[in-house]
Amino acid sequence: MLTNLDQVRSIVFDLDGTLYTSQAIADEIAAAAEILVGESRGVSREEGRKLIACARRRLTELLEEEPTLTRTCMELGIEVPAFHRALRDRVHPERHLDSDPILYALLDSLRDLCDLYIYTNNSLPLTQKILALLGVDGVFKRLYTIEFTGIPKPDPESLSRVLEDIGGPPETFLFIGDRQQVDLKVPSTLGIPTLLVGETGDLLQIHKLLGIIP
Fold first, then answer.
1. Which of 125, 135, 142, 193 could serve as 99's disulfide partner, Cβ 3.0–4.6 Å?
2. Is residue 174 part of a domain?
3. Same domain, yes or no, for 66 and 115?
4. 3-state secondary structure of 143
5. How does pLDDT run across 55-107, given as a tens digit for each residue?
6. Up-side HSE of residue 80: CA atoms within 13 Å toward CB?
């Protein structure tokens, strides 16, 4: 849904997989979840992995789409704060991320036209750390993390809270993400323009769509 983009005033970015990609960080997040689930059941990490896989299959059948890791852990009785405490203790983005001057330049060039926001299932501390490591922590007007929404994406009520807090009709937003079902499906149902990206280089499409570059 990429029409009437001349009205866009607020660009809302997902974080992981959208502003950066790192298999190492993804692996650390998965490992943290497996250990947490295993410890909660008094079993090994390997058994925790199997429980997550089983819960994911069950939720996929129920929801008719693959659930996020957060939602899967919730299905296994893990509370969201506990999940993010485990990530805080076991995920180390500083080992894998460096400053990205090209990303900064891309985002900075958008700020004259639009306000920029982050909407992520990550916690605020982890989000702030990642953005600082990338060198883009100063370009966003506000960060909407799990502490603000309380419920992970995709969730219509959480999205409504974000939209209400930013303000403006649907056509003044543009949502950017790497997962159609998680990041973009719900905004799209509200008539909000969306852009699916596969890598950070795809963010150049925003400039073309907004007429910043030909």
1. 135
2. yes
3. no
4. strand
5. 999 999 998 888 999 999 999 999 999 999 999 999 999 999 999 999 999 99
6. 16
Amino acid identity, position 48:
G
- pLDDT bin (cut points 50, 70, 90) of residue 25 is very high
The token pair at 22 is 């790192």
CA distance 123 to 109: 27
Residue 12, domain extent: 5-21+98-209
Residues contacting residue 54 through CB under 8 Å, at least 6 positions apart: none
Give the list of residues 6+ apart from residue 61 with CB closer than 8 angstroms, or none: none
pLDDT, tens digit, 9 for 90 and up, residues 93-136 = 999 999 999 999 999 999 888 999 999 999 999 999 999 999 99
The reply to whether 110 and 13 lie within a common domain is yes
Name the pTM for this structure.
0.92
